Amino acid sequence: MSVAIVSAMMTSMSSCQQSQRENPLLQASELPYGAPDFSKIQTSDYLPAFEAAIQQNRDEIDSIVSNPEAPTFENTILALEESGKTLDRVSDIFFALTEADKTPELGELEKQIQPMITELSNDISFNEQLFERIRQVYDAEYSTLTGEDQKLLEETYKSFVRKGALLSAEKKERMKDINMRISVLQQQWGDLLQEATNEAVVWVSDKEQLAGLSEADVEQCQKDAESRGAKAPYAIVIVNTTQQPLLASLDNRELRRQIYEASIHRTDGTNDFNTYPIVVEIATLRAEQAEIMGYPNYASYSLENTMAKTPENVYAFLNSLIAQYAPKADAETKAIEDFARQTEGADFQLQAYDRFYYSAKMKKQLLDVSDDEVKPYFNVDSVLINGVFFAANRAYGLTFKERTDIPFYHPDMRAFEIFDKDGKQKALFYCDYYRRPTKRGGAWMSSFAKQSRYRNQLPLIFNVCNSAKAPEGKPSLLTWDEVTTMFHEFGHALHGILSDCNYNRLSGTSVARDFVELPSQFNESFATIPEVFDNYARHYETNEPMPEDLKERMLQSITFQTAYALGENLAATCLDLAWHMLPSTDIPSVENAGDFETEALKKVGLLNDQIPPRYRTSYFNHVWGGGYAAGYYSYLWTEVLAVNVADIFRQRGALDPATGGDFCAKVLSRGNTGDLMQMFSDFTGMAQPDASGLLKARGL
Question: Which of 191, 307, 396, 535 is 20 to 30 A from 256 in CA distance terms?
Answer without folding.
Answer: 191
